[in-house]
Amino acid sequence: MGASYSKSLIKLLLGIDILQPAIIKTLFEKLPEYFFENKNSDEINVPRLIVSQLKWLDRVVDGKDLTAKIMQLISIAPENLQHDIITSLPEILGDSQHTDVGKELSDLLIENTSLTVPILDVLSSLRLDPNFLLKVRQLVMDKLSSIRLEDLPVIIKFILHSITAMDALEVISELREKLDLQHCVLPSRLQASQVKLKSKGRASSSGNQESSDQSCIILLFDVIKSAIRYEKTISEAWIKAIENTASVSEHKVFDLVMLFIIYSTNTQTKKYIERVLRNKIRSGCIQEQLLQSTFSVHYLVLKDMCSSILSLAQSLLHSLDQSIISFGSLLYKYAFKFFDTYCQQEVVGALVTHICSGNEAEVDTALDVLLELVLLNPSAMMMNAVFVKGILDYLDNISPQQIRKLFCVLSTLAFSKQNEASSHIQDDMHLVIRKQLSSTVFKYKLIGIIGAVTMAGIMAADRTESCSLTQERANLSNEQCTQVTSLLQLVHSCSEQSPQASALYYDEFANLIQQEKLDPKALERVGHTICIDFQDAFVVDSCVVPEGDFPFPVKALYGLEEHNTQDGIAINLLPLLFSQDFAKDGGPVTPQESGQKLVSPLCLAPYFRLLRLCVERQHNGNLEEIDGLLDCPIFLTDLEPGEKLESMSAKERAFMCSLLFLTLNWFREIVNAFCQETSPEMKGKVLTRLKHIVELQIILEKYLAVTPDYIPPLGNFDVETLDITPHTVTAISAKIRKKGKIERKQKADGSKTSSSDTISEEKNSECDPTPSHRGQLNKEFTGKEEKTSLLLHNYHAFFRELDIEVFSILHCGLVTKFILDTEMHTEATEVVQLGPPELLFLLEDLSQKLESMLTPPIARRVPFFKNKGSRNIGFSHLQQRSAQEIVHCVFQLVTPMCNHLENIHNYFQCLAAENHGVVDGPGMKVQEYHIMSSCYQRLLQIFHGLFAWSGFSQPENQNLLYSALHVLSSRLKQGEHSQPLEELLSQSFHYLQNFHQSIPSFQCALYLIRLLMVILEKSTASTQNKEKIASLARQFLCRVWPSGDKEKSSISNDQLHALLCIYLEHTDSILKAIEEIAGVGVPELINSPKDVSSSTFPTLTRHTFVVFFRVMMAELEKTVKKIEPGTAADSQQIHEEKLLYWNMAVRDFSILINLIKVFDSHPVLHVCLKYGRLFVEAFLKQCMPLLDFSFRKHREDVLSLLETFQLDTRLLHHLCGHSKIHQDTRLTQHVPLLKKTLELLVCRVKAMLTLNNCREAFWLGNLKNRDLQGEEIKSQNSQESTADESEDDMSSQASKSKATEDGEEDEVSAGEKEQDSDESYDDSD
Q: How far apart are CA 1212 and CA 1210, in angstroms?
């Protein structure tokens, strides 16, 4: 045969035309003889050799005969030879035979599935008709589910290569339905589970151990990657197919892998994929379980896309939606869990970058992920510890709660028993903490305290778990307890020179005990002196009145024991405060000013909290050892100011304010401590203390009102409060006093509500722990009560935080308090009740806590000059609990809150019956009315915050929601425990809806509506209830609400705006609703006296008209934008319906736009210019295409529509002239865009006429400027500008023929030209 490069004899003979047929015939006859013979001694495969002679012939004499012989041979050959012959076909046959061979092969494909791969491989290489390929592809698609995994790559390649732009979406949709790789890879599941064990130290060389299935899968995805890289239509169709999948169950692991692959392959589609993913996550279609399965099954495929997956996670973490942020954090977690060490390092690096970003939500999420990774895989995290340690250089920019998390991560790494190599981290931690504790900069000292106490908790907790295992470890635990003790003692000694630092140490230590993170031995060693030190510092004999040069007479007040015994105790508050503050003008003692240990009254409340938790932990919740502190009096002076208030000096007033703050904080901690006591006597005492708090707050408000620039003693000792709050409050209190922007009654611990317009409230947000929009819902109060109410709200950060357990007091109805005589016999019984002021105090605090915890920390960038943690000031204890814990606690209160809600409802029902609905009727207790109204509002606010919590979308929280809804529905009627969710939602909706009759204020009404909407959002069948929302909203808009100040309504514009939007969004016909308000309500208002409202809509007054006008214009524009333009192919009925709808919309627009002739204030004109342009733009885009093909059949309707609209656009032109002549820049900035839009409209009308063969009906005229009343603007400038405009617009403006007949030049603005064309239609006919 010669060398490999020379032709064989057979090949040479086949090149001779006359011999070729005979030789081919002989070869095919000989070939079957070798079918079943083994290879000869030379390892030559004779059948394959014979077939190879037929390849690449210069000329085939009889192609058809050769094709027939080959196909016959294929039908009888063994399978391995069939493969060889089929794959050789493109090299044997000429182009003319491709069609015939293709048909034969497709038939063979149906008969023999084992030949699928070679046949499809060949079909891809033959020149075949696209329609034929389409049939073959469909044939393959039908058999896809039964094909072997190793054949899939070739098959998928054929399918993807045969896709066209027209059928891409259809084919991909079918492909993703039939291709379920999660089940194809079942053998590798075992390997995937082993990966979890191996991932700690698995190197990238693990590919050598991959199973054949995994190799096939990797090959398959390589084929897909290649296809989507070079075919844009395939990637777009794949994303679209996934986007169109609606059901949760239809989403597969394959979908997620494809999104990741396209994201990493096509940079142009990244934004599109991110949008699709966000929508899927929000709707709950892609959940954690699906993501986990994706990583566990296809980790080898995803490993190559590590950088793209991390980039996607980073993008998701920048989102505003908590569910999307959570998904981004899961991407980081699973990437770390399943990928190799290089990827793990990238994950940690990305998380550290997030932590140093300055974005609060990002920092929190990244720290949470780091903490989870440390617990999940400590040895892998140990390799990346150096990155985490680097965060210690950026402590300035993170909040105290984040500092706790960071030190928790580092401490867990440093003191993990599994890591022997962690000693260097321990050394670094000790160095950093000692450095911070000894810093002269106060902020760093406090960071050191937080870090040291957090580290002590981790050190103790680790040993606690292992103590019981062996004696050796128990001994080690003793050694560890010694380390913990020495660390805490170090903190104590470094902080004792500063009251603030000491107080923070006590609070941090108390939190450690409360979370049960401290080993009992360590607690015993550190805590044995706490009780003694507290007594020495703050407790004295009540019978010995302190002597000294005090500015006020000292008295033992607020004792709860009626008969004081000789050995009674008292809290030594006033003398301590006097000795520290009075001589120093009320300024706090700084560490530099005192070289000796101080007993500061500032530490009273934090030290007591520490003492209480220590006793509670050591005695299993029993507080008998310290229950004397609940009863004992305090050394104060007469606090009620009376007439002496004005005569006091500023220093004395400041002293009294400090005394009140400290007393209030003491009582707050007392209530925190004893709120869960079960005996009636103790409950009574706690309620009395609660009553004292409310009384003292009223007294404090009086002092604060006349004490400007006063800085209270701190109540919370986190870093942020020390930095900014005192100074901010100083400025605010002065501003409040001066401007009188007041909103609230009673303690302003309350909560956020809708947004605020006032400048003063924007300033307040710097010291306010919540955004500045909280104040608007509380403007129903009057007089002096209102003027003092906001004061305490701004001092919120200086009050001690109430624990979440305190709200168990809401369970109290009537509690009997026994009074014992000297011989311990019951002398009398006094009934102590949770009164309205105390209820309001608790509800305000609870609503504020829920707002802080359950409203997601929107990932907003911190504005310049704003304090980073201002939102969380006063919530440091609360922030250490998860949202789930808080929700679980509050759900225990749903029943008592329902009781209170029903009682308040009954109160207002009875009140309405007695006074016929008149608020200030005879015998009405106005103060009680306002308190009850505020309680009503707070309860609705709490329910709203609770049910609006985004966490209910997670499956693990569904039971909580179910139980709460069961409580609500059972108030209406007792039902079975196993009711479906829809039934519970429906009953809960009806239960809450029943309260609408007794709603006392507009603010409550808005919260009730929002609460009902939140309930409806969770229901799948909410369409019928949508009408109920609209009906209820209309009732509230048509109700007469009690007014506030005589000059001002009690309804804020923001709340009215919100309710009106809800009404129009939920009503059946927005256009009819707008027509009713603008066509009925507004004329009533115009015809009524100055201060009288509309009779149909009492909320519509001259003050609130601009709100109604803005909402109606905005909703009208939003509605018409949703109308599809339609096409000429649509049915006649659809055209008529759309034309009718546009007629109604233009009529509404006309009614609204004409109101500016009566209401011509700046805000109204501004709304008119803004939304007028948007409406005209919508008319251009949505309505003009409809008129194009409706003109011939509905000529009169189109003319009528354009005639009405022409008058409106003329008025818009007049408004432009009005803006210019008044030179109001706020209005004139809208004029150029509006004029451009009006000109476009004229051109568009002309185009419509041309399309309908009416172009000759369009002719031109001059333009004049007029004001709102239609009077011509006579100034020379405006005349010149008019002339200019008319010249500029010559090409596109028309005028009415009727007007020119009267001898006048009609003013044809850019927007009135369609009328001209309308009139011209009549002329042309």
A: 5
**DSSP single-letter state for residue 1183:** I
Q: Which of 51-60, 525-534, 1163-1172 has the highest mean pLDDT?
A: 1163-1172
Token pair of 64 as six digits: 């058809």
d(CA 464, CA 49): 78
111: Cβ–Cβ under 8 A, 6 or more apart, which residues?
A: none
In SS3 terms, 690-706 reads as: HHHHHHHHHHHHHHHHC
**Dihedral (CA of 658, 660, 663, 664) sign:** negative
Interacting residues of 710 by C-beta distance below 8 A, sequence separation 6+: 586, 653, 654, 657, 704, 730, 733
Rounded to 5°, the CA angle 702-736-1163 comes to 140
Helix %, strand %, coil % of the chain (to 5): 70, 0, 30
What percent of the chain stands above pLDDT 70? Answer: 77
CA-wise closest residue to 945 among 806, 774, 798: 774
> What's at 890, amino acid-wise?
V
Between 1220 and 1324, whose confidence is greater? 1220
CB count within 10 Å of CB 671 equals 24
Decide if 1309 contacts 1213 (C-beta within 8 A).
Answer: yes
User: Phi-psi category of 43—alpha, beta or left, where left has phi over 0 and alpha has psi -120 to 50?
Assistant: left
Kindly state the tokens that stand for 1061: 């939007």
Rounded CA gap, 793 and 873, in Å?
A: 13
CA 573/CA 683 separation, integer angstroms: 25
Q: How far is it, in rounded angstroms, from Cα 713 to Cα 1288? A: 71
Distance CA 452, CA 454 (A): 5
More confident residue, 1254 or 952: 952
Q: Provide the b/e sequence for 1159-1180 (b: ≥16 CB within 10 Å).
A: beeeebbbbbbbbbbbbbbbbb
d(CA 609, CA 673): 7
Q: How confident is the model at residue 668 (pLDDT cuts 50, 70, 90)?
A: very high
User: CB-based contacts of 679: which residues, under 8 Å, 6+ apart?
Assistant: none
Nearest by Cα to 846 from 880, 893, 797: 893
**Are 770 and 727 in contact, with CB atoms under 8 Å apart?**
no
In terms of pLDDT, which residue wins out, 919 or 307? 307
Q: Are 47 and 40 in contact (CB under 8 A)?
A: no
| Cβ-based neighbours of 247, under 8 Å, separated by 6 or more | 285
Residues 930-987: pLDDT tens digits? 888 999 999 999 999 998 887 787 777 888 888 888 888 888 877 666 788 888 888 8
Contact call for residues 1319 and 1295 (beta carbons, < 8 A) = no
Exposed/middle/buried for residue 267 (C-beta within 10 Å: 0-12, 13-18, 19+): exposed
Q: In whole angstroms, give the CA distance from residue 1029 to residue 990.
A: 11
Q: What is the pLDDT of residues 1208-1248, one digit of tens each?
A: 888 888 788 777 777 777 777 778 888 888 788 778 777 77
Four-residue CA torsion sign, 966, 970, 976, 979: negative
Does 1008 score more than 90 pLDDT? yes
Question: What order do you get walking across the sheet with 569-571 strand by strand?
Answer: 539-541, 569-571, 634-636, 555-557
Mean pLDDT of the chain, nearest integer: 75
Strands 539-541 and 555-557, sheet pairing: unpaired
Phi, psi dihedrals of residue 556, rounded to the nearest 5°: -85, 110
The region of weakest confidence among 46-55, 116-125, 785-794, 1045-1054 is: 785-794
Per DSSP, 1266 falls in state B
The token duo for 473 is: 């470890």
CA 964 – CA 975 distance, rounded (Å): 14
CA distance 663 to 672: 14
- Can you give the length of the chain in residues? 1325
pLDDT given at position 829: 59
